[in-house]
Amino acid sequence: MKQLSVFLIFIFVSLQNLSASELPKYSTGFDPARDAFADGRDAIKRATASNRLILIELGGDWCKWCHKFDHFLNKNPAIKKELHDTFVLLKVNVSEENYNDEFLKVFPRPYGYPHMYITQSNGKLLHSKDTGQFVVKGQYSVQKFKEFFKRWREVKKIAMKVVQG
Questions:
Q1: Which of 64, 65, 76, 147 shows the smallest number of beta carbons within 10 Å?
Q2: What are 59-98's pLDDT values in tens digits?
Q3: C-alpha gyration radius of the chain
């Protein structure tokens, strides 16, 4: 029993240790000074090398729901880990300081923030997602995110089979 407790503590600490220092800066916050094109190129390299999709999150420091999303991830380390295991997260600032219009002109118009786009590792758009669909009773839902990750892991498996022939 003691060994099981030590193991569970180790797993919990490992999940908690998915620190911001291990992630690229563009995965940890919205910065109007960042170059979304350079960040996007790096996200493509990381996604290709690690066999992940890219999740582009639009928002900014002004966005209440963006802060709620970050808080939700920090409160749910297993969900945060699954997010980063499935996707390379690319946060793109949208604010008066920098709307990133040139970068975002190839994407469908978002109708709220945060908004998510899912792309293949080569940057090709697969899906546009309103994050309001993750909210249940005014809070982000662990279950909704689990369903979301499961769907995209399945999509990724199918895509890999097609590529491999």
A1: 64
A2: 999 999 999 999 999 999 999 999 999 999 999 999 999 9
A3: 16
Number of domains present in the structure of the chain: 1
Domain of residue 126, CATH code: 3.40.30.10
Residue 77 near residue 18, CB atoms below 8 Å:
yes
Place of tokens 């998510």: 116
Structural domain harbouring 141? 22-164
Mean confidence (pLDDT) of the chain: 88
Distance, in Å, from the CA atom of 125 to the CA atom of 108, rounded to the nearest integer, reads 10
Beta-carbon count within 10 A of 27 CB: 20
Q: Looking at residue 109, what DSSP letter applies?
A: P
Name the helix (H) or strand (E) containing 160.
helix 142-164
